[in-house]
Amino acid sequence: MKLPVYLDYSATTPVDPRVAEKMIPFLTENFGNPASRSHTFGWTAEQAVENAREEVAKLVNADPREIVWTSGATESDNLAIKGAAEFYQTKGRHLITVKTEHKAVLDTMRELESSGFEVTYLEPMANGLLDLDAFRAAIRPDTVLASVMQVNNEIGVIQDIAAIGRICREHGVIFHVDAAQATGKVEIDLEQLPVDLMSFSAHKTYGPKGIGALYVRRKPRIRLKAQMHGGGHERGLRSGTLATHQIVGMGEAFRIAREEMAAENERIRRLRDRLLAGLADMEEVFINGDLEQRVPHNLNISFNYVEGESLMMAIKDLAVSSGSACTSASLEPSYVLRALGRSDELAHSSIRFTLGRYTTAEDVDFAISLIKDKVARLREISPLWEMYKDGIDLNTVQWAAAH
Amino acid sequence: MIYFDHNATTPLDGRVLEAMLPYLKSCHGNPSSLHRPGRIARDAVETARAQVAALVGATASQVVFTSGGSEANNLALKGLAWSLKPGHIRIGATEHPSVVESARLLARHGWDCRTLTVDARGLIEDAALDAIAKNPPDIVSVMLANNETGVIQDVGRVAALATGAWLHCDAVQAAGKIPLNFARTGVHLMSLSGHKIGGPKGAGALIADASVPLTPLIHGGGQEKGLRGGTENVAAIVGFGKAAELAASELQERSRWLRRLRDRLEQGIEKLPGATVFARTTERLPNTLQFAVAGYDGETLVMLLDRHGIAVSSGSACAGGAREPSPVLLAMGVDPALATGAVRISLGKDNTEAEVERLLTALGRILETGQTY
User: Fold this and answer.
1) Angstrom distance (rounded) from CA B7 to CA A44
2) What's a single GO BP term from this record (chain A) (predicted)?
C-alpha cells in the first residue's frame, strides 16, 4: 500500500489514466489553437473541443450549446453569479445563498455586496440540508438569483435541487447550482431540473485541473454579462485561448463518469459504509451532515475530546482534510460545520474522508485502525477525556481565565 | 504539414511535456491541501513561479498565475480600475483584443478611454507620448511586441514619460523571443502566456509590482494571495515554468536562429511581384513577418498555402474567421485593400531552413500560376 493513503477525493481527484492518454496527443502533435481558422492544426483542435463539449453536455443531459468553458468551477461560479446579477440588476439587486456554500460562491456574493447588492445567507438545518420553507420565505420581489450547491464539499449532503428550483421558477428567480462535487456522483438531468446555471469542474471528476464549465440555459434563455473580455471566444461569454488538452480531458472524464458512475457509486458506497461501521462504534464520535441524502463518497466525523491539529499530525499516513482544501490552510474551524451548529471544539476535531475511484478495502481498513489507535492515544493524554470519563459535565465546568 | 503560426500557439517542447507528465499522472494533489500530496503540488507551483519570474527579471512574489494571457490582461486593466476611481486610461492603438475589450468595458463604467496613435511604422507617435507626459492618465497599457506585425514598442520610453500612471505591458508575444526585464522596463504590470513560449495552454501570469492596487476578478478560495481564486492548474503551471526556464536559457540561440530564418524569408518575399512587408524598417520580433501581395486576399493566400501543406494565418487567431482588414494595420495607416491581403508568418525554434524554402517556393508558384482558391 502506498502511503499516505489518499482519502481526499473532494479536494481533487487523480487524473484517470484513460483521461491522461486522451489528453497527451493534444499536448503534442495536435497542438493547434482552436481559434485558428486557417489550417488543420486549428480545425483539429476545434473539433476536439466540440466533441468534449458534447460529452460534458451528455453527462448532464444538456445541449452542447449550453456549455461554456471556463478555467474551473470557481470561475464558473463567478461568471454565473456576477454575470447574471449584473445583467438583471435592473430587475432587482437581492440574492440568496446558503452559509455552507463553497467560498467561490460566498466570496463572490461578498464582492457583489460591496457593489450594492443585498445578499441573504440562509442557515441550513442541523443535517446540512436547506429548509425549503425558509428558502421560500427569503424570496423578495427584488430577488434576482439564488445559488445553492448540489453536493456539499465538506459533508457531502445532497440538496433537493428540483424542489428549490421549482420554488425559484414560481417566483421568477434565476437559479444557479454549483455542481462541482456532484458530477459522477449523482444523476443530473438538466432537461428535467429547473436549473438555469450550473457550474462544473473537471478535477473533482478524474479530469485535469484548470478546466471547468458553466451550463447556461437556452430555453428559457438566461443572459449573462461576460466577465473575461477579449477575442470573443465562447460566444463572447468567456474570452481567452481554449486549453484544448484540458478540455479534451474534461470531456473524457465526463464520458467515463456517465458510463461508470452507477457501478462505481455502489462500490464506493460499500467502502464508505465499511469505514462508517469501523468508526461508528467508537465513543463520542459524531457524523456531520445527513447520512441518507448524501453522496456515497463522503464521511465527515467529529471526534470529541481530541484536539484537531494533534489528530491531523498523528494521522499523517492518511491524506485527509479537516475542511475544504481551499480553506484548510487556515486553522479556523470549518465554517460549514459551524453553520450546522457544531461547537468550535467539535468542528475543530472533525475529519473529512472522501473516497473515490482508486480507494480499496485495504485503504479503508488501514484508515480505521490508524484512526482508532491514534484517537485512543490522544484521549489517553487528554485531561478533558479523563474528566468526561469521570462523569463530569464539561459544560458546567467554570474555567479559570487563562493568562 | 509545416507550421508557421507560432504567434497563435506553439507546439509543446518535449522537455516541457516530460516535466508536466508526473502532475498529470501520479502527483495529483491540490496545492491548498496540507497533506503530502498537497505539499508536493504546492512545491511544484512555487518552483514554476520562480522559473517564470526569472524569465522576465521579476521576483517570484510578483507572479500571479492566471488561466492565460487574456485573463492576465483582464486582471491588469480591470483589477487596477476597480481599485481606483474612474479616470483616464490610454491604450496603444494596436493592442490585443483582451486589452481593447477590457478598456471598452472600463469606458462603460465611466472611464475616459482613448488610444495612443501609432505611425506608419507601428510605433506610438511622439505626439501621443507628449500628451501623456503632459497630462498623465491613471492607467496606460502598451504591448511590448505586436502579435501581427511583430513591432516592438519602446516601452521603457513610455514608462519614462508616463510617470504618475500605472503602466501595464502586454508581453505575451515578446516573452521568450527578446530579452525582458520587468524591473528595468519600469512597468508595474506585465502579462505573460505559457502557450506562446512552448508551454501548455491554460496557464499565464500577471507580473504585478507589490505597489499596484489590484482587485481580484475571480473570487473564492484565496489562492494567489487572494488575487485569483480557483484551484491552481498545477500541470500547466509546471509546464509554463519549465518552458520559461528553457526560453530563458536558450533565448540568444533561439532568437539568432529565428532571425536568420525570418531574414531569409523576408528577402524571398520582397522579391515577389507586388509584395509589401509591413513594418519592414521597424524593430520587430525575430520570428514574425507580416506581408501582403497586391491583388491577393489574405484569406485566399492562407488557404492556398494550406493546400501546399503550410500553416500560416491572416492575422491573430482570436479574430480568425473574420474577413475584416486587420485593425492593427489600419491603425498604421495601411490602405484597407492592402490590409485585407495580410498574411502573417510566425516562426518557431524548430522550424528549418528547408521549411522556409518550401514556403517561398509555394508562394512563388501560387503567384506565378495566378492560382485562386
Assistant:
1) 18
2) [2Fe-2S] cluster assembly
Give CA–CA dist B247/B241, Å, rounded. 10
- Cβ proximity of A254 and A51 under 8 Å: no
Under 8 Å between Cβ of B220 and B237: no
* φ, ψ for residue A289, nearest 5 deg: 90, 155
Report which DSSP code applies to B115.
Answer: E
User: Which residues of chain B lie closer than 8 angstroms to A209, CB-CB?
Assistant: 30, 231-236
ipTM of the modeled complex: 0.94
Q: Is A166 helix (H, G, I), strand (E, B) or coil?
A: helix
Chain A residues near residue B3 by CB distance under 8 angstroms? 39, 41
Do residues B140 and B132 make contact, with C-beta atoms less than 8 angstroms apart? yes
Residue A165 one-letter amino acid: G
C-alpha A130/C-alpha A12 separation (Å) is: 26
Question: What is the mean pLDDT for each group of 10 consecutive residues in chain A (403 residues)?
Answer: 94 98 96 92 96 98 98 98 98 98 97 97 98 98 98 98 98 98 98 98 98 97 97 94 98 98 98 97 96 98 90 94 60 88 90 97 98 96 91 77 56
CA distances from A182 to A178, A237, A295, A327, B120 (A): 8, 24, 8, 20, 56
pTM given for the model: 0.95
Q: Please tell me the distance from the alpha carbon of residue B183 to that of residue B173, in angstroms, as a whole number.
A: 18
